[in-house]
Automatic annotation (TrEMBL):
This protein's name: Gfo/Idh/MocA family oxidoreductase
PANTHER family: CONSERVED EXPRESSED OXIDOREDUCTASE (EUROFUNG), OXIDOREDUCTASE
InterPro entries attached to this UniProt entry: Gfo/Idh/MocA-like_OxRdtase_N, Gfo/Idh/MocA_oxidoreduct, GFO_IDH_MocA-like_dom, NAD(P)-bd_dom_sf
Ranges for domain Gfo/Idh/MocA-like oxidoreductase N-terminal: 12-143
All residue ranges annotated as the GFO/IDH/MocA-like oxidoreductase domain in the record: 151-283
GO molecular function list: nucleotide binding
Record SUPFAM superfamilies: Glyceraldehyde-3-phosphate dehydrogenase-like, C-terminal domain, NAD(P)-binding Rossmann-fold domains
Superkingdom: Bacteria
UniProt lineage: Bacteria, Pseudomonadati, Planctomycetota, Planctomycetia, Gemmatales
Pfam family, one: GFO_IDH_MocA
Length: 397
């Protein structure tokens, strides 16, 4: 079968961010082309125009499509012939820029994959959801942990009733890299993440708790009802939280907790989730993503492995590339998000209907969900953990 049938060509990708010295842009670029379904052809790679140009050869982006700003890129790409211009843009820039960049490209008709958190604040997220609806573009959000084969397996096991009714979700995202005031040394990634004018209303809770919250929502599909949260900044002089815990009541009576830290000594990138149902419990860790534990009282514990065999669902199996025992991880999970977004981009490009609202990939509604979670976490914490509504009309239900 030819690539991206019935479109029968590679998609053309543009990248915003990812300039020299940055983090996640390279991951987007790698994930985007992993399955040979796209090629990176254009970019506005840095907020610094000189660096934007200088970074282009690192990605084999030709000089005439290495732009000095995202505005220039949107304008010039839109003027290119249809068989040349980008099909979509990936936004890998700090949080305060996501809205303007996504809006600019969506309104020009380009599909968008934006990193999380979706925007700077909830109002922007709601506006972006309206723009996506109006323009009909495909819009993905890189909550990449939902791309792991065993996370997708967990979701299907919950949906099939294998866990029974879900009573509890414990989601964690624990890091230690901000134990010291790294931002005072102008460390690039620390500087904007701890700056309220760039990160948004939350620090650690916006940066990583959003992933943990999203993971619980993705796997269980439970609808959030109320939230109570406490956020703290333990490093002296830091303007935003570097630790926090939220308790969430779901509409079915389940209880959830989300704990996130960036000040825990020795912890690297420990995102993990545990789910308790009336029939069984699951546990999955992103630092050991190729296995997942399923436990039932009185029975031997079962270890599910990625590509472990026919007991895995079709979706989970299709989310793996290598045979079992050959570890897959971050890049591949990221690429799974890309691949499912590509399916919809191909449909849109070939005039076929697609249901972006029901996508397996995180979409703009999940982005709004994350921003609502951040907003209400901060508001609850400011009211000493008051219970606040976590319902939002634009989120998946
Ligand atoms: N999904 C994940 O697992 C994950 C991991 C890390 C970061 N992120 C998210 O990705 C985004 C970027 O994070 P990072 O750690 O890569 O940041 P970074 O500081 O390492 O890189 C940001 C890049 O964006 C560029 N940039 C800033 N403003 C720009 C503009 N207006 N136009 C073009 N380029 C611009 C910078 O010059 C830099 O190259 C953030 O929103 C962050 O929350 C997601």
């Amino acid at each position: 079968m030819s690539v991206n049938a019935p479109l029968n060509r590679k998609l053309r990708m543009g990248l915003i961010g990812g300039g020299q010295g940055s983090f996640i842009g390279r991951v987007h670029a790698t994930a985007g082309i992993l399955d040979n379904r796209a090629e990176l052809v254009a970019g506005a790679l840095s907020s610094d125009p000189v660096k934007a140009k200088a970074s282009a050869p690192d990605y084999d982006i030709p000089a005439d499509r290495a732009y000095t700003s995202y505005q220039e890129m949107a304008e010039k790409e839109a003027k290119l012939p249809a068989d040349k211009r980008i099909d979509f843009v990936s936004v890998a820039t700090p949080n305060h820029t996501h809205f303007e960049i996504s809006k600019c490209f969506a309104e020009a008709g380009f599909n968008v994959i934006c990193d999380k958190p979706l925007t700077f604040d909830l109002k922007q997220a709601e506006e972006l959801a309206a723009i996506v609806k109006k323009t009909g573009v495909v819009f993905g959000v890189s909550h990449n942990y939902t791309g792991y084969p065993l996370v997708r397996q967990a979701r299907e096991m919950v949906r099939n009733g294998e866990l029974g009714e879900i009573n509890a979700i414990r989601a964690f995202y624990i890091q230690g890299w901000l134990r010291t005031k790294l931002e005072a040394d102008s460390q690039k990634q620390a500087a904007w993440r701890t700056d309220p004018s760039k990160s948004g209303a939350a620090g650690c809770f916006g940066d990583i708790a959003t992933h943990a919250y999203n993971l619980g929502r993705f796997i269980t599909g439970l609808i959030p009802d109320q939230i109570s949260c406490h956020l703290k900044s333990f490093v002296e002089g830091r303007a935003l939280d570097d630790y926090g815990t939220a308790v969430i009541k779901f509409t079915n009576g389940a209880l959830g907790t989300v704990t996130a830290s960036q000040i825990s000594h020795g912890r690297e990138n420990e995102a993990w989730i545990e789910i308790d149902g009336t029939k069984g419990s699951l546990e999955w860790h992103q630092e050991e993503p190729n296995k997942m534990l399923y436990r039932v009282n009185g029975k031997p514990h079962q270890i599910y492995t990625r590509a472990g065999g026919p007991y895995l669902s079709a979706l989970s199996s299709a989310s793996s590339r290598l045979p079992s025992g050959h570890p897959e991880a971050f890049f591949e999970a990221f690429a799974n998000i890309y691949s499912s977004v590509y399916d919809d981009i191909v449909k849109r490009a070939t005039g076929k209907p697609f249901d972006g609202a029901a996508s397996i990939y995180p979409n703009v509604m999940d982005g709004v969900d994350g921003m609502n979670f951040i907003t209400q976490s901060v508001a609850s914490s400011q009211q000493n953990g008051a219970w606040l509504s976590l319902k939002h009309p634009l989120c998946r239900s």
